[in-house]
Fold each of these.
Amino acid sequence: MRKTRSLLLLGASALLMALGGCSDSGSDFDVSSQIGPNPVLPDPNPKLVPDLKVAEVIGWGDNQTPTVPDGLKITAYAKDLANPRTVHTLPNGDVLVIQSTGPNTEPLTRPKDAIRGWIMAIAHGSGGGSGKPSNLITLLRDTNRDGVVDERHDILTGLASPFGVAWADDTLYVAATDAVLAYPYKLGSTEAITTAPRVVTELPGGPINHHWTKDLALSPDKRFLYASVGSNSNITENGLEAEKDRAAIWQIDRQTGASKLYATGLRNPNGLTFHPETGMLWAVANERDELGPNLVPDYMTSVQEGAFYGWPWSYYGNHVDARVHPPRPDMAEKAIAPDYALSSHVAALGLTFGNGSALPQAFRNGAFIGEHGSWNRTAFNGYKVAFVPFGNGKPSGKTQDFVTGFIEGDKAHGRPVGVGIDGTGALLVADDAGGTVWRVASADGTVSPQPVGTDDNVAVPPAPQPEPPPAPNIQP
């Protein structure tokens, strides 16, 4: 295996040197034309090796912070974390920071795989250089609600690449890379959890596990957990059999563990969250690569039960991906288009709503999106937190840059991932490459009257609906 990896890396290096001069044929493309409900979709432009521009992570210097709009202030809520990926606020205002790294079990079968691994190593940096092991959950407590962390406790360690969490009925649910686990946890405790977990349900894991992050959301009625499971490939190069129950959002009964595919055809969904007013489930998704620098736009969408969103046979409705064999025109025909495009390769991984926050009024009805940033185009895209205004439970305008400054020239100070609202109503941003959780608050010091947990920020549960047909599994 070591010899195979070395040979593949050598081949990848040769390809990079040979094709390093390739230009981004879409460098004059108007990225803003791909933001909104009707994105411009150019013709596919696949290449042997995709366009590349990798931002080397340099971290944050003393007194350096990202940039926010006027009327806001940004501070480091917690530093020296080990790849912070998501944040989750408990009903008492304590914040859980989920830190994780991938399982590194995916075999290298093509030179492209070695290229991707090399790129990811550079682009992720050292997670802030903390030197501590990752794959743990840390509790942060702001005892007097002044926006400064007073206590910090590691409550769970040694996890298998965790990402999403939820809390209900004295139980902390953790979506590891291969299972949803339930741990006994009483609100307010700062003691390390040592009790063995109950396995709620197993999730697709290795040996490939191409998209390893598994996000988690709790339904407004507290009955179900929703887990995101990304695809096992870019575009089925590992075979359709490797995609069983993947590229999907699962619905899981949290008491019995019974599960079903709630929606399918989403290549790499994350950021699962319920809209506070409508109770509708929303997600962001990373679309496919290697069709050129301006295909395919990543997106944010409401998640309809029983719906199919196209992957792998099509994108944005019935735009057929001719690389997939055997073709399935029947599947492409039934695919629905997502609600809102974010432009290509921004790598959207985090989503939360500003409703009920203590941010300025302009940001209290809309979605915050953590865009981890591109690597497969020659002009950077993403590397920011964007805000999309909403009206009547739907996107109602163009995205606005909300947190920027992660990129400086060809270097990256950090990369935003998960976003959430803390116990004071400020926005938290998990910066995995920078090893930091950032806090964005109103400059005038406004805070919310009381903490609202991530799992409790839904005012109206969705109305009961007739049982739809099950979401189609992408396997033939």
Amino acid sequence: MKTFFLGITLTCLLVSGGLRAQGFDEKIQDIFQAALDTRLLGLGQSGRNFSLSNNQLSRATLDGFVDILQTGVTHFPAGATATGLSFDFSNGVPVTETQSLGPIFAERAATLGKGRFNVGFLSNYLNYQTLRGQKLSDLTFVFTHNDIGLSGLGDMPAEWDRVELAMNLGIRATIFSFVGTVGISDRIDLGVALPFLSVKVQSDPVATLVSQTYLQSGVANFYYGGSETAPELSTVLPGINEEASGLGDLVLRGKYHFVKDNRLDLAAMAQLSLATGDAANFLGSGEGYLKLGVIGSTHYGNMTPHVNLFYQRASGGSRGDELALYLGYDHQVNPAFTLAVDVLSEFQIHPIEEGYRLPGSVEYRQEVSNNVTYRRRVPLSNIPFWERDHYVNAAFGIKYSPREDMIILSNLLLPLNSGGLRTALTPSLGFDFSF
């Protein structure tokens, strides 16, 4: 058994340590760089007033955007440590502890039973539609000119020039998860979750120069083609249409069933997530996580309510610590069918760190006469400026057991809020074997 878990861990570390091609993070940077520097003609070639290397707001926009995409793709719950029936062998013979087949993403307190194994496979398809409620296909960024005059934008005509970038973005992912659990004793389970991801990113970006200098004087300081007096102010940029596949972040888990009672069962659980996935290609988070919590479950006839409360400590990154609360129940319709319903909530405790936060807006100020100042505030993106991204989802699942040692399961995950990168609906299909 130790060899089994050690082998999986070493495999993940070896695979994740290999050489890789240019990641999605660098491909998105290339789009930004083309819009702000390499394709920009005119005074921008010498001043580089929009470029990522010379404009702090441009750089902050790129870093914040890449981080929120990377976090969103990898922010998906692993399957439960063990599903199906649980057994107590304390009297030398197996005694069934549970009636229903259990939840799909949440946990109940019961453990497998000493010497028992559970192996599961879960496939999830995610077609991302929105980012903080804004359609991915409609995402737009605004890049401002550097402040070259008095402190604050707007006192010089050139400072009113800006670049608008439409990403026309699409992201799809398929996550195949292997989940294995072994009963060390009647009260202790150890488990592993190993995801394999396939992520496809498509983007057909278009950059447009809003040239205030051209509107006022007929001479453009910046343009994408033509000349200063006959400028081309819009251009189609090289896009992305590529797919990356590989191992995700390895998860190690342990559960201790410390209270067994006819009315209430309680368990403690620890989960360690290792940064084995390629974060640059949105296959991993890039950070490790330690998750500690308590699980409570009870039963009323054929219904088994459960509650999970976890605190997640991050080793770094943008999201920081999180508090997770899973509430739900599974209901045994008959010995072969179980319905599972859960609300899966994950709340970000601390604000997103400054280096990973999307900038909100900038203010332009221009003095039009004595004691009269024209002010205009321009958002730097149509993505809402939030300091935290909370995730709340509803899960509706069905489990079917054609025989005692096998379970076929399906689930639909629906978002209940708009935080982060979200799908409209996430279907899941899988199966478990117990022996």
Amino acid sequence: MGASFSLRYPHRVSAEFADAPALRLIRRRLDAGRLREFVYSPDGSEVVERMDSGQSAPVGVGLELGDEPGQLVARDPRAEDSLASIQLPPLRFGCEGTGGCCGLFHHIPVLPEERDALLATVAADWEGFVPLEELVHPAFEEGNDRTFNVAAADGCCAFVRPDGLCAPHVRGGLLAKPLVCRSFPCTVVVCGDEWHGSVRPECACMTRTALEGPEVQGDVESWLSFRASLLQVQEVPEALRLQGQKMISRSDYRGWLGRTVEALHGSDRPVTVLRSAARELGLGVAGQLDDGRPPQVWLARVVDWLVHAEDRLVEAYDSRSPYRLTVQWARKVAAEIAAEESPDRVGPSGDEVDDWSRRASVAAGFLLYGHGLLEARELGSAVLDLGHFLWLAREANGVQLAEEVDSRLESTTSWLFLWRAVGLPRREPPLSFSVNDEPCLGASGPLQPGP
């Protein structure tokens, strides 16, 4: 797949696609019985609609989806990978089958053998307006036959039935679905001599089942099977950038990570835990994570990004798309919060906010354990942004719940999706950020200047 889109599904990208030149990606969308085709520039910033006549009509400027240059290193699988153990967090998660994930992402990639199996599974029941094979189409305008995308319909995957269920799954069972669907939202990353398995933060079921779902550690075999299917491996490097020229070793980072995830487990004050974690890293702005309001300029940048994103999504995404609905909801609530003159906005209280806080702590724990912070260019800035977005998610509950817009959505994970999967806010480093000059992490090793 083209490098600009690889972060969405890193486990589906083979080395040949990761190293290939950027390609123009194709999305198709069923609209009132008509199949429309959109072609995106390599960075996603420009999009045109290809008409039936063969001509192309500009749709306007698209939503830029270029990946932030994170710190995880991509490589091909190795034989010795299967010998390393998989460590799982002490957290809970289950799938409720709401179907939000079926329309949340920019595209759904499948491999040739998956395309053939998918079409064969649903062929007997297909009664659509367009030929079935046109719904699973070449992923790139250059016309290679090595990867395909699934068309969208009514804002979701074209194979989602009116009752919200997956047609291939109903017809052929779990294994009838492409691996990218079967494995979502799982992620596994190599960290030193072990693997870390976790759940991607954009899954709405993460917070809905955070307190009641099955323990992740109780199903190691499924994680081993998922690891065996990887076409590309994500690995934590030996040295990580904290901020600017400040570096931290992988060993020290792993120790910090374990302590922070353990502190989040069962906590009802996730932002406070992150503040302590920021102080352990020696971050000079740990005081910003005191459950207080982020800088106004940070909130303004978030609102500007969302306004820009909403304008760009109108033509290429159906009005019922969870992706589009998430952006519209976030823009509305963020604008209202940013416009408040008082920094002491009153949101939910009592048992309701305690329940939300415990669930948000689990979401933050999953993000950390899956090394989601390393998808940013600097660990320190990612810690600060995560704290700010958890604050924003809590305050947004006092304006409007995402679930009130669409039952498939969930407020906290919607913010995490916009931040980590789409790139909100724009990829500038956080404002007013500094790092103390003192060594941190004690005897396990101080920060060292980078190259």
Amino acid sequence: MLLYGVAALLTPVVVLLVVAMVNNRTSELNIPTHTVPADSALPALHQVSLLGKRMAHQSPYSMPLRSGQQLTVADYANCANDATETMAALHSALKLPFVEHATRSVKDTIPEFAEMRETARILSGVADHYEIVGDYGRAMELRLDGLEFGVKIPRQGGILPQLVGGAVHAIAAVRIEDLVPHLPPDQLKSAAAHLDAIEAAETSYSDIVLEEGYTSTSYLKEIFKGFRLTPKGVDELHDTFGSGAMGDMSTMGKLRETGKMTKIVLASKRGLLEANLEYCRSVSKEVSGPYKKSLASQMPISLGAMGWGDSFHTAWEKQLSMQAVRRVLKTEIALELYFKTNGKYPQSLGQLVPVYLKSVPSDPFSPTMGPLIYRLQNNHFVVYSIGPDMQDNAGTSAKYAGTMPGDIVSGYLAGAKKRPPLPTAPKQ
């Protein structure tokens, strides 16, 4: 009887071990990949960053300021003088194909994204210099190059390059709309054409999600391939998927953690990889439609355990916020052109079509893909997107563009919290 009792106790353990051993056998899963062309912009962008590092004077956007210290005209002028070669190299690099490396292993080299943000800070410092001295056309050209740079970074890339591109885009967008009233019609038309080209160059967020699916699944595949059903192997898996010290360390939290890890250890690893790919394909399809406040696709246990949370949705908001900023800016340019021709602003955005706009820009946050909202009062206008809260806040700007609550509003495309005014150049 004792033997029967021991057998009864051990049988479930043996069964679980057999199931775990079978499910932890790795099998090949083909994950799509891509190649980087020989004339890729990435090496050229690295050279741009090296030129920036050799500058004797920092960008005003990177200078550490003491309490009460103010930036001077000379700070901007020194940056612009040092950055001549850097800006020319960036402009040339923008003409090359932007294709991110396919990261299919944790060992793959990730581009120096911090360098790209610093390049954007240099560009903004130079643009500010030209605004200070009254060369508004050159300032606009530079800032539009910055927007183009931000939009092109995520090509063939996943969430990380998309977020870096968003940061570069935000840095370049500072003060850009302040330039619009100062531009003559020919420069306004040139800026509008550049915005059209930027819009056409943008990678769809749907494609970014797919690439992230390929990247994350490749990482998981590598982790599972190295997993061994030993105490050490389980500990290493816990380091990857566990909540650790930042998680819920209550009794129930620890029980949930143990249950989660047991599921991952026992689950078919190929099944987990396929679920990961299928989830990313589902999200990719979902984000190709109208924006919504949450995603319906159910996150698999592998990504959920790694703390992904709302990462896909957050990045979606960032992408659409960039679109909204550019569409409001493009509409402002069209309104300024109309005003310079007619001495007044139109009663509706429809009056800008087809001379000043090909069509009225849609609001990327509208559930019906409706147009941007336009209001005119006493020959002063406001154009805005309702933003990610999907509420019409009557043109009240969010603290930062794309945050909540608030709209993405003309005059406040960098957000309601504006930077201090630029120093004034001495009169000649």
